[in-house]
Task: structure prediction
Amino acid sequence: MVQNALDLLLIVLLLATSFWCVRVHRRLVALRVGQDEIAGFVEALATATARAERTVQEMKAASSEAAAAQEAQAASVEKRREELARTIEAAQKMTRRLEDVLGQGAKLAAELRARQDAAATRAARPEPPAVPPAGPVEPAPTAPRRPVGGDLLEALQKLR
Result:
């Protein structure tokens, strides 16, 4: 009977061991399936990483090209800005000179008009009759008169 009890205990233990072996086997099979899935995932991840590295390198190259193009464009813009500043400065100098010349021309024109008005006023006034001289009278020499525009032109040319 002890023998039977021991055999019965041994059978129960063997059945429990067999049950646990079947469970462990199923778990190992599930792990192997999971391992295959993990291997596929790791392979896909490695491919994506390689593609991302290539893309990053391409982006760095494109960024370098864009930076070089931007520097060249900035240099061109700065050169044009300096050229425009020089042109504006020359135009301002020319404007000031023209304003000075026009101001001086206006002064000369005003003086000339004043002289002409004075001469016209003198010519319009009747002179008192003079006593005729005893001998022949020679006309006083006068300088030939130039037109008004000629005086103004000459004055402007002198200002240059």
